[in-house]
Write a structure and sequence with these properties.
This protein has helices at 137-145, 177-190, 210-216, 230-233, 236-255, 284-297, 315-318, 324-343, 354-358, 364-371, 404-413, 443-448, 467-482, 488-491, and strands at 2-3, 7-9, 16-19, 28-31, 34-37, 47-49, 58-61, 64-69, 78-79, 84-85, 110-115, 121-122, 126-131, 160-164, 195-202, 225-229, 260-263, 268-273, 301-304, 380-384, 394-398, 418-423, 436-440, 455-456. It is α/β, with parallel strands linked by helices. It has 3 domains: 2-85, Roll (Archaeosine Trna-guanine Transglycosylase, Chain: A, domain 4); 126-256, Ribose 5-phosphate Isomerase B, Chain: A, CATH 3.40.1400; 262-491. The chain has a 7-stranded parallel β-sheet, sandwiched between helices. The model has no long low-confidence stretch (mean pLDDT 95).
Length: 508
């Protein structure tokens, strides 16, 4: 990345530069050895043309194609939705595999975590009250709400009681992808290392029956795994009363759990970006990628997701796949999404939201190239379906929608015990039982929402630190958070309502 006072050129030969701040029409600028005059006002984070581009010609940023010019573009022009669009097809990528095995640290980093009986490690110590169906959601919430901070004051090592509720579980097929995804997601949460104890609650007549789900859960002390069926318990009030009694029995046991020093290899981090802007691919995502490289070299796991938001940049991942099978699995998911979107009369380029576009992102190709930077540079070690248990170490990919709550829910179900969430517009996302770190792409956002942002990557564009320095600082914050440091979303009480499994298939 080279820069002038006003512009950033990300790769030599790019057709566009990025405005470091608001640029006035007529302002004289220079970058990459080129002097030009801004033809229009260019908002901060948006693109300005460095050289002429003919209609139909590819436009390069990051050294990659981000779209085709829909009209002639002159140096100094604002490049955005009015003159840049997606290609009509996403060509197959033929790339040379550049996978290199990871060189692991000789002195692995550590954090303070809760070691469970099966050897997994939690970063938090919650009790989960989990509904099998929407019909039991209110009972779950009443039980969890009974355990206020005042009621838990005698149990300081218990982080809280969380209701995990959703809008599905019935009115769906008893077989097929929809029910399979829901079961995987609920099972992943019920078995999550951050839940020291769980209580599962069903109505009784739903499609997603509770007994088969309970039978599929991992081994856990009988005292720390309970279930209730409302119709068998005598109704709503009796189910709430009995549920509260179950939790009260769990509390003294869970309060005795203590943090111990464990290797960073027990850290599994879900990578998210939401409310992206023109700086996401320049600051926060590369900084997170640098932290991910450190995590992987210390034996940990990073989960890249949001398949519609790697679209057009998948070749950067297949090139790093540890095997041809892993590469083929990723491409199969890409083709599934193309067919899925086509079947629903959609468009893969529909992904950049109005907020993304206001922040300077024009096409899904541009957004994806910036988003993939979160994954760092190490090899791709596995590809997983939504909410599948992650059993590989290193960088892996989980197929999820781009919608952040749905995507993060799948990652947590897969075992993520920490979320790192980059944002340029200002997401406040929380995710119980997994802490969620918010990483601001620019200093203005960090200062404007300082009670919601955990980390400022804006120093990179401000010229105050390098990507590597920001990555090292973020990696340390990840370890501190895994050890119990509260995130802003936890301090703000967020995370009780963000459980959102991917709903797919017929609602009947």
């Amino acid at each position: 990345m080279s820069d002038s006072q006003s512009l950033l050129v990300l790769t030599p030969g790019d057709d566009v530069a990025v405005a470091r701040g608001d640029i006035a029409a007529g302002q004289q600028l220079s970058a990459d050895g080129i002097t030009l005059i801004a033809g229009q006002q260019i908002p901060s984070g948006h693109k300005i043309a460095l050289r002429p581009v003919s209609a139909g010609q590819q436009v390069l940023k990051y050294g990659q194609t981000i779209g085709l010019a829909t009209q002639g573009i002159e140096p100094g022009d604002h490049v955005h939705v009015h003159n840049l669009d997606m290609p009509t097809t996403n060509a197959e990528h033929s790339v040379q595999n550049i996978y290199v095995p990871t060189s692991f640290s000789s002195e692995p980093a550590t954090f303070e975590g809760y070691v469970r009986d099966d050897g997994r490690v939690g970063t938090r110590n919650y009790i989960g009250v989990i509904s099998s169906v929407n019909c039991s959601a209110t009972v779950c919430k009443h039980i969890a709400n009974a355990f206020s901070s005042e009621r838990l004051k005698d149990f300081p090592n218990v982080d809280g009681v969380v209701a995990i509720t959703h809008g599905s579980g019935c009115g769906m097929g008893a077989k097929g992808e929809g029910i399979d995804i829901l079961k995987r997601t609920l099972r992943g949460y019920a078995d999550h290392a951050n839940f020291a104890g769980v209580l599962l609650i069903g109505l009784g007549c739903e499609v997603n029956q509770l007994t088969p789900l309970m039978n599929e859960l991992g081994d856990r002390s009988a005292l720390l795994k309970a279930s209730l069926i409302i119709q068998e318990a005598g109704g709503t009030r009796e189910a709430v009363r009995r549920g509260i009694a179950h939790i009260e029995e769990m509390l003294p046991v869970i309060n005795h759990f203590r943090r111990t020093t464990v290797a960073a290899s027990h850290l599994s981090v879900g990578l998210q970006c939401g409310g992206s802007d023109g700086y996401s691919g320049i600051t926060a995502n590369p900084a997170l990628g640098a932290a991910v490289d450190l995590l992987v070299r210390h034996g940990g796991t990073a989960i890249l997701s949001e398949t519609p938001e790697i679209y057009g940049a998948e070749h950067l991942l297949t090139a790093r796949a540890a095997s041809a099978d892993i590469s083929a699995k990723l491409m199969e998911r890409i083709h599934w999404w193309e067919a899925y979107v086509h079947h629903n009369d959609g468009d893969m380029n529909n992904n950049p939201s109005p907020g993304n576009k206001a922040g300077g992102i024009t096409t899904i190709l541009e957004k994806s190239l910036g988003a993939v930077a979160k994954a760092g540079t190490t090899g791709l070690m596995g590809v997983y379906h939504y909410a599948e248990t992650i059993d590989a170490h290193g960088l892996v990919f989980m197929d999820t929608p781009g919608y952040d709550p749905v995507s993060a829910t799948g990652q947590v179900a897969g075992g993520a015990n920490l979320i790192c969430f980059t944002t340029g517009r200002g997401s406040t996302y929380g995710c119980k039982p997994t802490p969620s770190l918010k990483i601001a792409t620019n200093t203005g956002l960090f200062q404007r929402m300082e009670l919601d942002m955990d980390f400022n990557a804006g120093g990179i564009v401000d010229g105050l630190e390098s990507v590597a320095e920001a990555g090292q600082r973020l990696f340390q914050l990840m370890l501190d958070t895994a050890s119990g440091r509260q995130t802003c979303s936890e301090e703000n009480g967020l995370g009780d309502n963000e459980f959102l499994p991917w709903q797919i298939g017929a609602v009947m």
